[in-house]
Amino acid sequence: xxxxxxxxxxxxxxxxxxxxxxxxxxxxxxxxxxxxxxxxxxxxxxxxxxxxxxxxxxxxxxxxxxxxxxxxxxxxxxxxxxxxxxxxxxxxxxxxxxxxxxxxxxxxxxxxxxxxxxxxxxxxxxxxxxxxxxxxxxxxxxxxxxxxxxxxxxxxxxxxxxxxxxxxxxxxxxxxxxxxxxxxxxxxxxxxxxxxxxxxxxxxxxxxxxxxxxxxxxxxxxxxxxxxxxxxxxxxxxxxxxxxxxxxxxxxxxxxxxxx
Length: 260
Hints:
Helices cover about 70% and strands about 0% of the residues. It is built from ten helices and two strands, in the order H-H-E-E-H-H-H-H-H-H-H-H. Helix 1 packs across helix 5.
């Protein structure tokens, strides 16, 4: 076995062990345990969908209102919850860095993976349920949807790395991050399609990677019922620099952290 393969295997085992520890710490061994991760996005999506159904009717712009809300709100809750979990994550688990195999990146990655898996399960569950009652279309192109979901996850992870590092540098981050998350809503594509906007506003939101990811997801689900506007590769031009910035900040924080 090559050193690279051996090192990768070790890190995979470390991440798995940290995930088990995190799950037991957060949810214990009773009731439904890890499944609680998918309860919050489900509740948000269902309640907001019902409200929109009463306000706008069954259909809006030719698509199901409840399906539209579900496809937007679950990714938004993933972003909000992941950022919330990343703030203070390094301090809360700093003692684990005593072990040489545990890296600072693992502490952020584990919390994100748990949220990503939980919200993916919520997405699948609510889509299956709504398809059964004819409130959600059968996806027309799963490859486009999966690419959009992947881009959304990578963007969320990159922001998590930055927030985790900055929260160690200043306590102010913990106070202002809720405002920052809600400021992201107009630039997430949660409540609109780019084709519904005026040309000037559509041009502004086209610089937001989450909008492209959301347009891809809805294109893969609704197909010709919507007119998506996205660039397959533009999100990477923003996500990769953000990811590198987050990794650099985490590396800087690690040099100053005191492990007890």
